[in-house]
Each structure stands twice: as C-alpha cells, then as structure tokens.
What does this fold into?
Amino acid sequence: MTQAPTKERLRNTFSAKRRALSPGDAAAASRAVCDRLRGLPAWSAAREVLLYMPIQGEIDVRPLLHDLFARAVRALLPRCRPGEPGIMDLACPSCPEHLIPGAYGILEPDPAACPSEPGMNADLIVVPGLAFDRRGYRLGFGGGYYDRLLSSRALQSALTIGAAHAFQVVASLPAEPWDVRLRAICTENEYFETGS
It folds into this structure.
C-alpha cells in the first residue's frame, strides 16, 4: 500500500512548483484570481477585508489592497506578534507607506502608524497557502499562524477564501483536528465553495 505523503513532503513539492513558475505565468494567474475575487458579491459588500502580503510565489493580492484603499474600505493585514511565535495581530493600514518589513521579511503594518486593534471584524478574508483541498483544508508553512488567527471568535462569521494557483488545489490534504477549513477557494480557473 502506498503511504500518503507527509505534510513536509507536500510543502517541499508545492514550494518547488511555485518556484518553477515563470514570472509571466505567476503574474497572469494573480491577475485572474484578483479579477475573480473582485467579481464576487461578497467583495463588493464587504466593509472590512483581511488580506495578506505575498511572499515566495503566493498569489499577489496587492492590487486588491490598493482597491480597498481607493474605495475607503477598511483593509486589514496581519502582523506577527514579537516574541510570540505562531501569533498574529491585525492592524489597519490606510496607505502603502504604512507597510514595513516585519517578521520573515514580510511587509506588515507599521506599529508606529497602525496599532493593533483587537475589535476588528472582517467580513471577508483572503488566505495564502502552499496547497488547498476541495474540503477547504490548507497547507501552510507549518507555523500554525493562520489556524490560530482564523479560529478566533471575531472571525468566525467571515467568508474565508484561499487564493491559489490551480495546481495548488488537490482532492485531499492531510488534516489535523485544529486545522481550520476555509469556506471557498479561488484560482485563476475557478471559484468554488467547500461546504465548510
């Protein structure tokens, strides 16, 4: 019987696939995902949207952030909490100048300009990952940052959408009891709800 691949092996596989993408293909996929997300009624209706700053070949959602700034919709971004691995706070930048390199070199809201505000309540959350399955499970880098964030009571009612290249979507991923399922996945080719 063939043994199912471990999460670590899957991380290596999908990281390599993302690195192998040409810049043109990566940019085209990102544009298509952003266009598909913009077309959702939930995007137009959202009053607070939680995005991420892309790294290592993740779908580039920065155009969506600029759209939110232009529409005066509250844009939320995560910020790693210093000295507390696996924990992220949310902050509300209002312009690109509010972003500075933070943990792991990822752009984060500058604490001096954007204090953490625990009372924030996103309507829509766009989530990165290395792989996603059709049940809504995601494979991240293994730190548990998003599982902890998405399990918070304040974000329970948000529409959570994984942003992915089509090749990052598989039928099934290994899952742990604490893994938080996403409600939808969006790729350059499709948008589907997971039933979670």
